[in-house]
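User: Round two. Same drill as before: sequence, then structure, for each protein.

Assistant: Same drill it is. First protein:
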Amino acid sequence: MSSNASPHADCLVFKLEEYDKSPRRLDNTLYIVYDYQIEYFIIRGRRRSIPGFPSPTYSFECHDVNRLVDFIIYVFGADQIIHETLLNCKTLPAEGHDITFEMLQEADHDSIHITGYDDAIFTKERLVNILKILQNVFNCY
C-alpha cells in the first residue's frame, strides 16, 4: 500500500439474513465482502444466540463463486426466507482478513444501504448472479 493510500476500504458488502418460518425470527446473518487485493470472497456470519449462550461467529473464504454458494446453501438450508441488502461501507480495514463480523454489524445502518429486498427468492442461480455483481462492481480502495 502506498503512503498516500487510506488504511480503510470503501467497499461493497452483501448481507444475507435468514429467517425462521414459524415463529418468524432472525436465525442467521452473514456478510460477504470481495477482497480485490487477494481476489477472495470473505464471509463473516453469526447464528441467533440463545439466552445465556452467545453464538460464536463463523468465517469462510474462497475465490470460487460456486463454492461460496454451496457454503451459503449449506448454512441456510433450502426454502428459507431471506432478506438481502447491499451496503457501501467506508470504514472497513483495507485488508480483508482484518474485517470482523462485529465491524460489519456495527457499520450496518440504513444510511449505507444501497438496496435491499425482503423475502427474496433464494435460489442458487440468483445467488451466483448477485455474487458476480459483488465481484465486479466495486469502489476503489
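Second protein:
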Amino acid sequence: MEEQLLSPSIDSLLNTSTHMRQFALSASLLQRGAWLMSLAIVSSSFLAWPHYPSFIFYIVQTILFITMIIIFVLGWRRLSHWHCVFSLGNNGAGTLVLTGNSEPNKFRLTKKPFISPLLCLLYLQLQTGEKQLLLVWRDMLDDTAYRNLCRLLLSH
C-alpha cells in the first residue's frame, strides 16, 4: 500500500496532465547506421577465430556466420517497417502505440532520461509493469519536434 502512495498510478498521472504532446517516430538514418555498425562489430569477431584445419570447425563457423547474416537482414527488414506514436505529458506519463499494435499502452517515465544532441533514451514502465527502453534518434523527428521533446523531458 505504501508503494501505491509513493508512486501514483499511470491513469491518475494522465488525468492530471495539463499538456500532452504527440510524437510520431519512424525508422531513421542514424538508427540504421547504428544497426550497420553493430553488424560490422559482430562480423569482425569472426576474424578473431583461430584457424583450424578441421572441416567440421569450418562448417560450424560458416553456419554461424550465415545465421548471423540472416538475423541481421531480418532485423533490417523489421527496422524498415518500424514506427511508433507516443504522447507525453508534462508530468512524465503518456501513451505509446508501437508497430502492429493498435491498442495504446499507458506508460510513465521511470528514470531520468538521457538526452544528447543525437539521441534521447527514455526509460518507460508500461501499465502492465513491463519496463521498456525507447531510443529516439534526432532524425526520427523534425528539428522543432526533437527540441520540444528534449525540453519536455528536461522539465520532468
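The chain has a mean pLDDT of 84.

User: Perfect.
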